[in-house]
Amino acid sequence: MNRLEKAAEVAVNKCMAVKSGEAVLVITDETKREIGYALWEAAKRSGAEVILTEIIPRQVHGEEPPKPVAELMKNVDAVLAPTTKSLTHTDARREACTQGARIATLPGITEEVMLRSLDADYQKIARRSKKIASLLTEAHRVQVTTPSGTDITMSVEGRKGYADTGLYHQKGDFGNLPAGEAYLAPLEGSSQGVILIDGAIANLGLLKEGIRLVVKDGFVTEILGHTEAEKLKALLAPLGKLAYNIAELGIGTNDKAILTGNVLEDEKAIGTVHIALGDNASMGGTVTAPAHLDGILLRPTLEVNGETIMKDGKLLLD
Q1: How far apart are CA 224 and CA 162, in angstroms?
Q2: How far apart are CA 35 and CA 160, in angstroms?
Q3: Which residues have CB under 8 Å from 310's CB, separation 6+?
Q4: Residues 203, 204, 206, 209: what is their CA dihedral angle, to the nearest 10 degrees?
Q5: Which of 117, 140, 162 is the last residue of a domain?
Q6: Are residues 131 and 105 in the same domain?
Q7: What 3-state class would DSSP assign to 25?
Q8: Residue-level pLDDT at 212
Q9: Cα-flanking dihedrals φ and ψ of residue 99, to 5°?
Q10: pLDDT over 70 for what percent of the chain?
């Protein structure tokens, strides 16, 4: 068994706990076909009734899959989705989970990321993620600052913190693989300040210049910078106002993840915070938008209810 096959075994058996006789759906596309097939083979070896389907790559993260695929998702026990763009923040994923499917999305996954970040202690990641998620659930105010210029405050009053543990064993569970973050949806209209995205951002990858976002009453009102900022403007322009919503605050908890420009892995790296724009309906928010774009902040200081839980990129709890 080669390393990719072993990583697929981890995903299917440890992370998804696929059992003999279960119906499993693997959704992939042209660029992720090899990984999709490895997951299909692993599920087949587990004794599952496994289906492999290939879709045309979506244009942006959060775009819906074809309707027949969405119907399939609602009629299986488990879904693994190694696709170019994320299916996490879609109605198809949400409705399938409501029907009891447990789902792991692997947007933008590469063989390198799969081999490195799936080779992690997910029990430890789960404990760390749940601890931070609990702090977020109890919080009412969060502030994030960075040396590069981020200074933003958010109300999280009444919002639940979620732990992306990598262990999706119960009906309706969902998350990414590789996993490792704690996150929530800030209260709509509450975020105020400036975000300097200096690590990476979905669709654009690693950033050289950085992108400055001015935030007022929960929405990005200005996008400042040079080439990278112009690319982000062009990406968001056709998507409508809700795509500018401050949708998510997330904290990376995977000690094997590193910053590579692949946001699937980047947002899981310990020492980073990510803030997303667009859809937050998957995490207890009220905004449904045609995109969900994560931006990675480097060397963040994170205060929750005035208590510092991360200082200059060092997580102060384990």
Answers
A1: 31
A2: 33
A3: 251, 271, 273, 300, 301, 302, 316
A4: -150
A5: 117
A6: no
A7: strand
A8: 98
A9: -80, -5
A10: 100
User: Which DSSP string corresponds to 238-282?
Assistant: GG-GGGGBEEEEEEE-BTT---SS-HHHHTTBTTEEEEEEE--GG
Counting runs of H as helices and runs of E as strands, what totals does the chain give? 8, 20
Q: DSSP 3-state assignment of 138?
A: helix
Category of 244 on φ-ψ map: left (φ > 0), alpha (ψ -120 to 50) or beta: alpha
> Residue 221: helix, strand or coil by DSSP?
strand
Whose tokens are 């009453």? That residue is 217
8 A C-beta contact, residue 80 and residue 16: yes
Based on the fold, state whether residues 159 and 18 are members of the same structural domain.
no
Residues in a beta bridge with 13: none
Give residue 296's identity as a one-letter amino acid code.
I
Show the tokens assigned to 154.
């958010």
Residues 198/171, Cβ–Cβ less than 8 Å: no
Strand pairing partners for 79? 25, 103
pLDDT one-digit tens code per residue, 179-213: 999 999 999 999 999 999 999 999 999 999 999 99
Identity (one letter) of the amino acid at 276?
A: A
CA distance 159 to 94: 18
My answer on whether 221 and 168 are in the same domain is yes
**Among the three residues 88, 117, 146, which one is the final residue of a domain in this structure?**
117
